[in-house]
Write a structure and sequence with these properties.
The protein is mainly alpha-helical. The protein has helices spanning 7-19, 43-47, 49-61, 64-84. The chain crosses the membrane at residues 66-87.
Length: 88
């Protein structure tokens, strides 16, 4: 008897759940920031995808990390070349 179900109570709770619409539990606050961080760039640059891509590419090419890795690769290539060239 302890495993029996009160079907009236179960049916009423099921009907209450059915009344909830698809978007009744949707909260846009979960996805939208009320205080977005301020950008250092003008709005036209933020909206235009070409300008945004151009800026990110420029930041990559001028970053110190990119310069450092490029220099390491060039020095390594020259070192390998100077070691292997006299062997031929």
């Amino acid at each position: 008897d302890k495993y029996s179900t009160d079907w009236d109570k179960a049916w009423s709770s099921f009907r209450k759940q059915g009344k909830k619409t698809l978007f009744s539990q949707f909260s846009p606050d979960k996805y939208v920031s009320r205080n977005p961080r301020r950008s250092n760039y003008p709005l036209s640059e933020e909206v235009d995808p070409i300008k945004r891509t151009e800026r990110s590419t420029l930041m990559l090419w001028t970053s110190p990390r990119f310069t450092l890795f490029g220099a390491i690769i060039i020095v390594t290539f020259l070192l390998v070349y100077t070691i292997l060239a006299p062997i031929k």
